[in-house]
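REQUEST ID: PR-0412
SUBMITTED BY: lab tech R.K.
PRIORITY: routine
TASK: structure prediction, single protein chain
INPUT:
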Amino acid sequence: MEPYIPPRDRRGTRTGFTTGTNAAAAAKAATLALLGGAWPDEVAVRLPSGETTTMAPVACQLEGGAASCGRI
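STATUS: complete
OUTPUT:
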């Protein structure tokens, strides 16, 4: 399978993942930590193109019944 390459915008730029993709990865990691009691090393996120990418959670906190996670 060839990797998905998103189209360039009018200025010819194309970099990184959207804020929504990063937020989805962080939310999924926090949910998995709450359910399992430990942070996953990485989470899989499905992109609008149908492809799946994996991302590592960073800046994670798990305290009591709350979890928060950030992505850079």
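NOTES: Residues 19-36 form the longest helix (18 residues).
REVIEWED BY: pending
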